[in-house]
Q: What sequence folds into this?
């Protein structure tokens, strides 16, 4: 059975359709209306010799490529600035997490020995709990609170 589309997908589809319809309407408008841009040779390029036209073409090409390279350099700088900001935000959040972890007191361990439990077993269980506690992520460790109340043999 086909699953219904999520709200996100529906919103994306609607936005895509609106943009597509707007582009189609603009294209139809341009095809229907008269386009009067004046003389096609306002700069008098047609009156120049072949060398003059070639020179103007080279200047236009250089201007276009220069514009593209300048915009690429600006884009690279913008991406590097964003990367630097994201890294600094990540470091700040890690520092906050470390501060939270260092401010937490050590978990309380209260052992109640019942019966003939050997000290080695108690030490092994406590070491296992401590090893598990140390392997957790710092954020998870702040939520991890436990207390050993008793150890019973199963």
A:
């Amino acid at each position: 059975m086909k699953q219904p589309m999520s709200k996100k997908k529906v919103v994306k589809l609607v936005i895509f359709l609106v943009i597509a319809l707007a582009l189609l309407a603009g294209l139809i408008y341009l095809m229907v209306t008269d386009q009067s841009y004046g003389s096609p040779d306002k700069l008098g390029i047609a009156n120049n010799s072949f060398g003059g036209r070639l020179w103007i073409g080279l200047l236009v090409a250089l201007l276009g490529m220069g514009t593209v390279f300048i915009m690429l350099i600006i884009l690279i700088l913008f991406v590097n600035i964003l990367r630097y900001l994201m890294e600094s935000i990540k470091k700040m959040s890690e520092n906050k997490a470390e501060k939270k972890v260092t401010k937490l007191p050590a978990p309380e361990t209260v052992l109640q020995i019942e019966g003939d439990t050997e000290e080695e077993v108690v030490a092994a269980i406590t070491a296992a709990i401590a090893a598990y506690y140390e392997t957790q992520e710092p954020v998870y460790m702040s939520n991890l609170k436990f207390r050993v109340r008793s150890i019973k043999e199963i």
The longest helix spans residues 50-103. The radius of gyration is 36 Å.
